[in-house]
Design a protein that fits this description.
alpha/beta; 2,3-Dihydroxybiphenyl 1,2-Dioxygenase, domain 1; 2 domains; 4-stranded mixed sheet
């Protein structure tokens, strides 16, 4: 593990605190760090941070899919209101030029781009999830849900739920068979 990984773990701890606070549960930052360290297989935060300092392998962070969209304004409600992502930032080189945004949920990060050269419409992004049934139920409970996805229990990578955004990009949420 590298310092990049500890930075990612700190981001996860922050997200955990924010999600719990939204549910009315306040926890200290130190406890959030300890919980994330446990989730990453370390006995505590100090062990996780120590292991990060010993790694000599160059860090490669998780890839960030870039999905081509025709209009960020049209697809953003789908990602934010329906899928529960958060808008992290947006960028436009100048007024009137294409928009490029980042959305995230937990450790999942996506870039949505109006730029012509960024990907092709109808791209695919695959996300590992711990409990695809819980995510499925969450989406079905959304008011004014734009779709009612099903779950393929026999998918090759484990139970998988697939949703398609308003521009035809496919998002596959798959639960490892070992997590069942």
């Amino acid at each position: 593990m590298t310092s990049t990984h500890t930075d990612h773990a700190k981001k996860l701890a922050k997200l955990l605190r924010e999600d719990l606070a939204a549910a009315g549960i306040e926890i200290p930052h130190g406890l959030a760090l300890e919980l994330i360290a446990h989730q990453l297989g370390a006995t505590d935060w100090n062990v996780l941070a120590a292991v990060a300092g010993r790694s000599s392998v160059p860090a490669i962070s998780p890839a960030v899919p870039v999905l081509r969209v025709m209009s960020v304004a049209q697809v953003l409600p789908f990602y934010l209101d329906y899928l529960g992502f958060t808008l992290d930032w947006e960028h436009r080189f100048a007024p009137g030029l294409p928009l490029y945004v980042q959305v995230s949920r937990s450790a999942a990060v996506l870039h949505l781009s109006e730029h012509h050269g960024d990907g092709s419409p109808h791209g695919v992004a695959w996300f590992p999830v711990r409990d695809v049934s819980a995510l499925h139920e969450e989406l079905l409970a959304r008011p004014n849900a734009p779709m009612r996805p099903g779950i393929d229990l026999d998918a090759p990578g484990g139970p998988t739920m697939q949703v398609t955004d308003p521009n035809g990009n496919i998002l596959r949420f798959a639960q490892s068979p070992s997590a069942q």
